[in-house]
Amino acid sequence: MDIDFDRLGIVAGSGNLPISIVKECEKNNIKPFIVVLKDFAKEVDYNNFPHRILNLGDVGKAISFFKKNKIQYIVFAGGVKKPDLKTIWPDLKGLFLLLKLLKCKIFGDDTILQTTIKFLEKEGFEILPVDQIVKDIKISYGIAGNIKLPDDDYLNDIDLGIKVLKQIGDLDIGQSVIIQNGIVIGIECIEGTAKLIERCGKLKYTTGRKPILVKIKKSKQTRKIDLPAIGEDTVLQAKQAGFAGIAIDADNGLVINREATISIANKNKI
Questions:
Q1: What is the pTM of this model?
Q2: Backbone angles phi, psi at 230, to 5 degrees
Q3: CA end-to-end distance (rounded Å), the chain
Q4: Which residues pair with 213 in a beta bridge?
Q5: Phi/psi of residue 247, nearest 5 degrees
Q6: Tens digit of pLDDT for each residue in 225-269?
Q7: Tens digit of pLDDT for each residue in 125-136?
């Protein structure tokens, strides 16, 4: 951890990543203050820590909670499905942010996140990337576990996946693509990686090479929020769907509970 502080604000969505951050805080004597996003994060996971349960539109309440507790640094972690703006009932600060978003020509994930970051930075906060907080969450170049791909044609599938993602990344579409036999069988859109894997498990060819999930950071995406991530669940989903493996961006990708995730991949021959 590069920055010296004794408290951290966490905006928690779904999944294990926010929990990993809380555990890292405990190891380093940092007190976490958590905004638990309703319908995404589970309050029971954070009952032992200062927290507030808030809706996506409760921007002012979140800012007040963090400022009251003298928070300077904030980290965003966990899954959040892009909302339908018609379903959000914002507070006053949330309304200001919503009006800024409505002025954007493209309402993609990157636009939403970049605008949100700038809004919070003007409020005096600094947004930190997850890998600046959690140790051992990055992955080295090459094969992470003991399982090697059956032949080099799989590397060609990975290369194709990277090329496709670099193209669609400019359009702010998604971080993940699934390739099989040199063919794109699925691109991640609003449904998220888990649903993409499930969908492509049904679409995959029954002959030839097995599918590969490729996941990289979008070209114009900030590193401060929503870096591409996988974890134990991703590996088990890939196994169930009949995939050969997962390729993730070594420079910008996150592997949640890295050692456990690699161990599960080895056991399941992923």
A1: 0.87
A2: -135, 165
A3: 31
A4: 178, 246
A5: -115, 125
A6: 888 999 999 999 999 999 999 999 999 999 999 999 999 999 999
A7: 999 999 889 888
